[in-house]
Amino acid sequence: MKSLLKYALVAVGLMMTFITSAQSDSIKKTNVQFKIGAYYNSNLNYFGRTDSLRSSGFFPMAELWINKHFYINAAPVFVNNTAASFQYAGTVATAGYQFNDQKRWAGNFYVVKPIYKDNSELVQSALKAQVAASLTLQNKIINITGGADVKFSGNTDFGATGGLDHIFRFQLDDKTVLVIDPSSYVYAGTQQFTNTYYKKSSFLLFPGVEQQVSENVKKFNILSYELSVPVILGMGKFQLLAIPSYVMPQNLITVPNRPDLSERGENLFYATLGAKVTF
Prior knowledge:
Largest sheet: 12 strands, antiparallel, barrel
Oligomer: single chain
Structural class: mainly beta
Distance between the termini: 37 Å
Number of helices: 1
Order of helices and strands: HEEEEEEEEEEEEEEEEE
Number of strands: 17
Radius of gyration: 21 Å
Strand order of the largest sheet: 1-3-4-5-6-7-8-9-12-13-15-17
Helix content: under 10%
């Protein structure tokens, strides 16, 4: 459970940033806006990595847009599985800056800060902070996105993202807009683990002796491939969101004879559903 919640909070922070980026075009340049929403994730995962409980998550979120570029949001995260029913895990806060010239370039820079409840056993194992940025080259055929991030916990990890998407926008009436955005992404990052092996040593004519050697290893690998189709329906100040996704985890870390220390993951379908209103 510790590792799943650590990973899930990261994923929630990234997903919230995506939501705010995708839905903020209507914000006027000088207006401060407040938004509240609620979101449900059917299967919490970190690049396809899960635990055996297959937890789902619910998180209400409050957003403050200072203008169309600067935003702050916060969301308490509640986890549900066979061992816990609607259990509070912590709060994820995000502050960021985004831009979109509506012609060629769009970008997003943000900082994520998880905040946990007092005396939570998750504090030492969970992410302490994350800094990330992305840049998108927009055109009529396909949008190309690249991004990078730094995650701070007990160790420092680096990540990279590459993606392709194409936005379909349908103006249903004066106040109703439907946006569909088929997307494909690849995620990569550093992985840190302990590698244990046996080394045979010998000296002159004396027989060799096997010794167990453990070393810390840090590698930069592809973590997952993901396909998704975000769908957003905007009706005046009210918005509905659905993101069906299919994730394929890569380079799972396994420890021989220690499933408790090994990463659990498989190709996984999950969905995020949500609603938001602007005041």
